[in-house]
Amino acid sequence: MGVREWGLLVLLSVLWGGAFFFVGVAVPEIPPFTLVALRVFCALPFLWGLLMIRGQFFLIGSAPFFAFVAMGLLNNAVPQVLIAWAQGTVSAGVASILNATTPLFTVLLAHVLIREEKMTPGKCLGVVLGFSGVVVMTGLDALDGIGLSVLAQGAVLVASLSYAMAAIYGRYLAQQDGVSPLIVTVGSITGAALVLVPLALALETPWTLPVPGIPAWGAVLGLAVLSTVCAYLLFYNLLDRVGASNASLVTFLIPVSAVVLGFLFLEEQLEPRHGAGMALIALGLAVLDGRLIRGRRPSPLQGEGAG
């Protein structure tokens, strides 16, 4: 990846890392399934409006509808519902560690399913270093909770596997003729809404709940516009440019963004373990980039901004 791609990956991590902040504001007033459903439902007007402004409305039929529904299930409905359910019994630290297995699953699946993304020793080392960095940032004491709530922790692992499968499938969709990242984003979020909205209505009957306050609605808007519309447009664009394995590395950067945002806006403390974890993640990403191992500048074909 060139400098531009790394910059986009960092920006994506900020957009998704910011989701933790928005969820923290909204979840005291809005139950989890309803919040997830609102996140995708409120994103739809922005996405469909952008589709019409760009003049790509007619292209929405360029891929089978079931493909979009499947993408929405893999990348939104299934993992977000599983994680929301698991958060009742799994600590945030354990969930972060288990969620960081997404690049591990992606590298394995890509090796089997994508000819251009074969596993290499450098790729394996970089993923292991990045995963270790997440563990250190979260705190080694979080490992004590591994295995205590097997069913809930298994749900988070299944969610991570679902994200990995979504990256592989999204890479396939993004390479189809006439299917732009915008088309994939609109289709997948629409498919997710078709599943999540009825689920929230059935399980939590949100119309019986007290009306949330302005901060909660502001958080929902932030989740919809920043952490969904902008983030998924960026994610599918990266999938097309750098592949599933590289795009999945955002999972390592999300905890970094969450910690930094918490320090800047929520007055949370930075601890030595945070710095050590960030250093390990940076080392892992440098190994994955390959330039550290090659010890030379990239060739013109790999130069900055190459896609």
Automatic annotation (TrEMBL):
Domain (EamA) ranges: 8-138, 155-287
Q: Name one GO cellular component term.
A: membrane
Cell compartments where the protein resides: Membrane
The yes or no answer to whether the keyword Transmembrane is present is yes
Keyword Kinase carried by entry: no
Query: Record's SUPFAM superfamilies?
Result: Multidrug resistance efflux transporter EmrE
Indicate how the chain sits in the lipid bilayer. Answer: Multi-pass membrane protein
Which Pfam families does the protein's record reference? EamA (PF00892)
Keyword vocabulary terms for this entry? Membrane, Transmembrane, Transmembrane helix
Q: Give the main localization category.
A: membrane
Segments spanning the bilayer are 7-27, 33-53, 92-112, 124-140, 146-170, 182-202, 214-235, 247-266, 272-288
Among PANTHER family, the record links this protein to:
AMINO-ACID METABOLITE EFFLUX PUMP-RELATED (PTHR32322:SF9), INNER MEMBRANE TRANSPORTER (PTHR32322)
Q: What is this protein called?
A: ABC transporter permease
Species for this entry: Haematospirillum jordaniae
Lineage here is:
Bacteria, Pseudomonadati, Pseudomonadota, Alphaproteobacteria, Rhodospirillales
